Amino acid sequence: MFDDRGGKNLLIKKEFRDKYRDIWPFSQFAGREAINVFRFLPTKYCEDDGQEVLSPYRLSNEPRDFGAWIYPAVVASIGGRQGITFIMGSRETDDELSIREKPYYVLYNNARRLLANHVYPHWRKFNLIQGFCADESVVPKLIRPEIHYFVFGLVLHHPLHKYNGHYLGSGESEPLHVVVLRRALGERMLDICDAPVNVQPDFDPISLDKGKLALIYRSSSAQYQGFDITFKDQFQNTSARLSDLAETITKKLAFWDVLHFPTVEEQVEYICQSPLPPEVIDRCLGETFGYLFPKWFLERLKVKDSVDETEEPQIDDLVDANAEVIFPKGEIEEIPDDLKGLLGL
Question: Distance from CA of residue 114 to its chain's centroid?
Fold first, then answer.
C-alpha cells in the first residue's frame, strides 16, 4: 500500500481504497530535505442529464472562487504518522455547533483544559499537546483539528517514489492519488493561484493538456518560511502535459464521494483505537460520549481500574468554574478563523 504515514489512515472509503490512495508531502526524508512533485487533476462528476464532465479550474476571477478540484475538510490526527487520521466534517456536512460537538474536538479541548489546570500532572509524560509535553521535541499525540485540502493527483517525484519519468497513478492498474495538504500549505497554494500574474486564462494547473507540475518543498527564505509550492511546466525531462495519458486518466477520475465521512459512532471508535492512553480517552470523552465506547474498550478500562489503586476525580470536579486558568474556557473553545471560513461563518 502506498501509504507514507504508516498508521491507520481512514480518509478514503473502504470500498475505494484499491482505486484511490492518499499521499502527504514530506518535508524531510532520511535526514535530508525532500522535494515532492505532483500533477494535480480535476474532479469528474455527472450532470443532471447523466453526462460526465470535468471540474473547471476557476469559476470566476474573484479571489478563492475555484472549482471543485480542491476540497477542504476538517481533519483529526492522533498519534502522528503511526496513529489515526480521519475527517471530522466539512462545509457540506457541518456548521459551527456541530464541529464543536465532534468527539475529537471535545477530546482535544478537555485534554488541553485539564493539562492547563494541572489536574493530572503525570499526563505530561504522554506528550499529548504542544506546550504540555515532557519532551517538546516530539510531535504531540493530539494536533489541533484544522482544515486540510484534498486534491486528486499523480506522483512524479516523492521520497517514496523516486523520479523515473513515470507518473505514478497514471497506469491502468495503479491507484490514483489523493494529495492531502495541511491548512498552511493549502492556503499558500491558493494565494499563489490568486496572484494577479496567475489569474489569467492560460494559467490552469489542473488542465490535462496544458497544466502545471506542483513542486512542494521546505522553504526557509526571508520572504516565506515553511512548506512552499511553485508551479512548473517541466521537472527534469518530464513535461506537465498529459495529452497522451488523458484518456486513461479521465476514466480514473472521480468526485469527493470517495472520501470517508465517519459517523459520530465511528469517530468515537477510531479514537478508542488510537495510541492515546485509555485513561485520557475516558477522562476527556467519557462523560459526553462514553455511551458509545465499544465493549472491548470498556473491558480495557475495567482491567486498568482493577489494578489502579488511586482514586481519580470525576470529570465534574476537574475544573472550578470560578478558578483562573491558564487557558480560559472561551479561548480554548473558540472556533479558529480558518474553520469559520470553511463553514461560511
Answer: 25
Asked whether residue 267 falls in the same domain as residue 331, the answer is yes
Domain boundary among 226, 258, 290: 258
What angle (nearest 5°) sits at the alpha carbon of residue 136, between those of residues 132 and 137?
160
Can you give the residue range of the structural domain that contains 296? 103-143+263-336
Q: Grid coordinates 491507484 are at which residue?
A: 175
Is the domain of 314 the same as that of 252? no
Handedness of CA 78, 97, 116, 131 (dihedral sign): positive
Instruction: Give the residues across from 213 on adjacent strands.
Output: 232
Asked if 73 and 15 sit in the same domain, the reply is yes
The letter for the amino acid at 121 is P
Q: What angle do CA 246, 12, 60 make, to 5 degrees?
A: 55
One-letter identity of residue 246: A
The reply to whether 239 and 267 lie within a common domain is no
Q: Look-up: residue for cell 481500574? A: 305
H helix runs in 244-292, sequence order:
246-252, 264-273, 278-289
The C-alpha cell of 106 is what?
A: 471535545
Last residue of a domain, one of 258, 277, 295: 258
Q: Same domain, yes or no, for 168 and 224?
A: yes
CA 194/CA 205 separation, integer angstroms: 12
290 in Cβ contact with 269 (< 8 Å): no
Q: What is the pLDDT of residue 260?
A: 95
- Three-class secondary structure of residue 34 per DSSP: coil
Cβ(205)–Cβ(212) below 8 Å: yes
Q: Which strand (E) or helix (H) includes residue 106?
A: helix 103-116
Note whether 187 and 290 are same-domain residues.
no
Give pLDDT tens digits for 313-336. Answer: 444 444 433 333 333 333 334 445
Question: Where is average pLDDT lowest: 99-108, 150-159, 225-234?
Answer: 225-234
- Count the domains in the chain: 2
Contact (Cβ atoms closer than 8 angstroms) between residue 28 and residue 104 = no
Whether residue 209 sits in one domain with residue 176: yes
Round to whole Å and give the CA distance between 311 and 316. Answer: 15
pTM: 0.84
